[in-house]
Amino acid sequence: MQTMESTGGPYLNTAAVTSPVGIARLLQMTFGCATFSLVAHQGGFSAAYGTFCMFVWTFCFAVTVFIIACEFTRLHSCLSLSWGNFTAAFAMLATLMSITAAVIYPLYFVQVGCYPIGCQVRDFRIAASVFAGLLFVTYAAEVFLTRAKPGQVTSYMATVSGLLKIVQAFVACIIFGALVNDSQYGKYVATQWCVAVYSFCFVVTVVVVAFSVTGKTALLWFPFERSVVIYTFGAVLLYASAAVIWPVFCFDSKYGSPRRPGLCAKGKCPWDSQLVIAIFTYVNLLLYVLDLAYSQRIRFVSHI
């Protein structure tokens, strides 16, 4: 008669749902499900803003369920991913996406009065907005709990520099959204240079994140750590040039308009898009400067 004996410890990892991070993920799953269920059942959504919010909530819910399932069953050890980098990167991305949806949905869909949508629909939308806010809090809590502590050996994406990479890519997506919204960036070669800066830095940042998440940094023929620092320094210089060029060619009276045109339609005004791009250019410049400063204090660990 054959007997079964355990040689590798328990098959299920109960810490995946009982630890502080595990509890935060269970709350994420609960709040995410409640949010998109309320919206889909009665709250309703429309246009690109509503579709974006529903995508955020369903996407974050699906990935969170996947993470919980993999950690609870220990199946993440079978995946060709650097699990610590993957979960840290997703938590930061989900935090940014969820706070964006938590602001957009009530801004466009919640109202004080009942007319014309009805009191029941209004109440469902208010409840969905509350759960959307709680969802953001739980993802931010996970980032706080899993962030790198001084002297701790941890995943690169859990460090300040790694988390900033996600924020930089997210801000770049906002810039791209404003660029395609009739920003007239093709009017001058100088503004086209700015678009090239945004695109190049976004692509390289995504590549850095991808190599960290997949755990393939050790396979590269060049020193990944040094290359990332050099790239970050280059990104600071590139964004500094865009931070000077874009406002000049958009808001100087010789090339553009220093003030918003009075006859410019709301939501379809190139000046508005140009202003958004200018603001977030300075935001990303600051993020890259902070990234460069923090990158001097960390060491990459590719196998975690």
TrEMBL record:
Where in the cell is the protein located? Answer: Membrane
Please give the GO cellular component terms listed in this UniProt entry.
Answer: cytoplasm; membrane
**InterPro entries xref list:** Marvel, MYADM-like
Give the bilayer topology. Answer: Multi-pass membrane protein
Q: Which residues cross the membrane?
A: 47-69, 81-104, 124-145, 157-180, 195-221, 228-249, 275-294
Query: Is Membrane among this UniProt entry's keywords?
Result: yes
Q: What PROSITE patterns would the database entry show? A: MARVEL (PS51225)
Domain MARVEL, by residue range, is 16-151, 156-300
Taxonomically, which superkingdom? Eukaryota
Question: What keywords are assigned to this protein?
Answer: Membrane, Repeat, Transmembrane, Transmembrane helix
Family in the record = Belongs to the MAL family.
What is the official name of this protein in its record?
Myeloid-associated differentiation marker-like protein 2
Protein species of origin = Serinus canaria (Island canary)
